[in-house]
Design brief:
Mean pLDDT: 90
CATH superfamily of the domain at 37-67 and 85-187: tt1808, chain A
Helix content: 10-25%
Strand content: 25-35%
CATH architecture of the domain at 37-67 and 85-187: Alpha-Beta Complex
Strand order of the largest sheet: 3-4-5-6-7-8
CATH class of the domain at 37-67 and 85-187: Alpha Beta
């Protein structure tokens, strides 16, 4: 009896050959389409970029600085794991030049996924396992439906949740703990001033 062969894992070349690869990822060796963002997802992603804007510059220039922060960025963690992260950041002291290329092949220092109901397992189980193996120091899961932020810090045995926060909480969230974050801002729940 013949044993069925495993399908060949997808590669970056397969992604590049796809006409619309902006929303495609390789997860577990298979090409998958990222969930279409809901309005809550898109809003949270835009707000996240705005809230962290002060970090996205050289240190000492109007804000804490010290990071390259990018939204909707493809990163190759292994040849069979290429993710289009909702947000990722690289410390400038480790990367004096902005990471470039498609996909970026340099390990980020921070990743944030905005949890989509149809991809919760990927965002909360699959991707964190791969990111942990790649030694990404921080992983945030931002959940618009639950209005919740989970901050994970790398540890040898797995990610440790170091912060659980929800709309209404004011926190200092690693690695951006140089400023206080009003979690409500990420979901548009803050009071108009």
């Amino acid at each position: 009896m013949a044993v069925p062969s495993k399908p060949t894992p997808a590669t970056v070349a397969d992604l590049e050959a796809s006409a619309d690869n902006d929303r495609l990822e390789i997860v577990g060796g298979a090409i998958v389409e990222k969930a279409a963002p809901s309005s809550a997802h898109g809003f949270a992603e835009g707000r996240l970029g705005g809230v962290l804007h002060g970090f996205n510059r050289r240190p000492g220039s109007r804000g804490p600085g010290g990071w390259w922060i990018m939204l909707e960025i493809h990163v190759e963690h292994t040849s069979s794991e290429v993710y289009c992260h909702d947000a990722a950041g690289w410390r400038r002291d480790r990367h004096p030049e902005r990471p470039s290329g498609w996909p970026i092949r340099s390990r980020p220092d921070w990743v944030c996924e905005i949890v989509s109901p149809s991809h919760e397992r990927q965002d909360l189980v699959v991707k964190p396992r791969v990111l942990h193996a790649a030694e990404v120091p921080y992983y945030w899961a931002l959940h618009p439906e639950e209005k919740m932020l989970l901050v994970h810090r790398w540890a040898p045995d797995g990610y440790t949740v170091v912060l659980r926060a929800t709309s209404g909480d004011r926190v200092r969230a690693e690695p951006f703990d140089a400023m206080e974050l009003d979690v409500s801002e990420l979901f548009g729940d803050e009071l108009d001033e």
